[in-house]
Amino acid sequence: MKIGVVGSGIMGNGIAQVFAMSGHTVILSDLNKQALDKAELVINQNVERVLKKSNQLDKKQTVLDCLTYTTDNSLLKDADLIVEAVTENMEVKRSVFKELDSFCTSKTILATNTSGLSITELANMTNRPGKVCGMHFFNPVPVMKLVEIVRGAETTDETIQFVQSLTKEMEKVSIVAKDSPLFVVNRILIPMLSEAMFVYGEGIASAEDIDSGMVYGTNQPIGPLRLADMIGLDTLLYVQETLLEETGDSKYRIPPILKQLVRAGHYGRKTNKGFYTYE
Ligand code: 3HC
């Protein structure tokens, strides 16, 4: 199959990698050439890391040959599936969907990796709402097994089945959710991360102790503040704003410390500073 991925950030490059590793032809596009160059480097390293573990380094070049990097979205026009993974902002995503719909062939399925924005609203930007769905991967994409498939108001069963079978082929597990703010996993996860930020912001414990508490007390692989840094605090702020705006429920109020860190340009690992400082 020919797969397009739009947006070469943390999620986009991971998504491109996993499709290439299951043998698909992948075109990764981004408006920013520097971001694409960085994505290519990261993908090369991560493909090597995964293949080394299974003693299959000889397959590295075959996987890398499946990938093309471009700043020209129109190369995606005859893709079977395009996964959009641009910044978590409805206006930006709406314009990407409108643009892709204008030149893609009628067979192309348009999926979004949004963390929780409305699939139905994005589908409404296109003339193919039945062929639009959510395909929500988890970070780090090559490691995390889940893909949350989200059904918009008009998504057809054929679209869901197509995406489900591709997910299975990549040896990932899928769940299907209705279009609703933050779907299933983030709806449950984000309030937990948010509460950790309130505990930190209220000075109840240090970041290290909050994380140790959750790692050793609830068997999570990493603590909530370290996970927040890994996801990206800018992304988390957008996601939390969506939850609060869409539900209007004050229980989803945004921790002041999250706003403050984002306003200071500290987005977590991607800027080397968030709740922790990274080398
Ligand atoms: N590519 C390939 N392999 C990777 C990788 C990557 N990017 N990152 C880590 N790995 C592999 C390592 O090679 C290692 O493999 P090994 O055990 O076979 O040697 C394994 O993962 C563990 O890595 P590390 O030892 O370096 O570090 P950790 O033990 O801390 O594990 C982790 C890393 C798997 C990311 C673990 O910390 C974890 O599971 N964290 C929680 C992740 C999570 O919850 N993600 C979901 C976030 S929510 C989200 O994405 C939704 C969005 O919409 C907000």
From TrEMBL:
Source organism phylogeny: Bacteria, Bacillati, Bacillota, Bacilli, Bacillales
Q: Where is this site: Important for catalytic activity?
A: 136
* Pathway participation: Lipid metabolism; butanoate metabolism
The record's similarity note reads: Belongs to the 3-hydroxyacyl-CoA dehydrogenase family.
User: Which superkingdom?
Assistant: Bacteria
Looking up InterPro entries in the UniProt record yields: 3-OHacyl-CoA_DH, 3-OHacyl-CoA_DH_NAD-bd, 3HC_DH_C, 6-PGluconate_DH-like_C_sf, 6PGD_dom2, NAD(P)-bd_dom_sf
Q: Which residues does the UniProt record annotate as the domain 3-hydroxyacyl-CoA dehydrogenase C-terminal?
A: 183-278
Q: Name one GO molecular function term.
A: NAD+ binding
The UniProt keywords, alphabetically, are:
NAD, Oxidoreductase
* Record organism: Cerasibacillus terrae
Q: What is the protein name for this chain?
A: 3-hydroxybutyryl-CoA dehydrogenase
Domain 3-hydroxyacyl-CoA dehydrogenase NAD binding as annotated: residue spans: 2-179
The UniProt record gives the binding positions of NAD(+) as 7-12, 30, 88, 93, 115, 139, 270
Q: Which SUPFAM superfamilies match?
A: 6-phosphogluconate dehydrogenase C-terminal domain-like, NAD(P)-binding Rossmann-fold domains
Task: List, in alphabetical order, the GO biological process terms annotated in this UniProt record.
Answer: fatty acid metabolic process
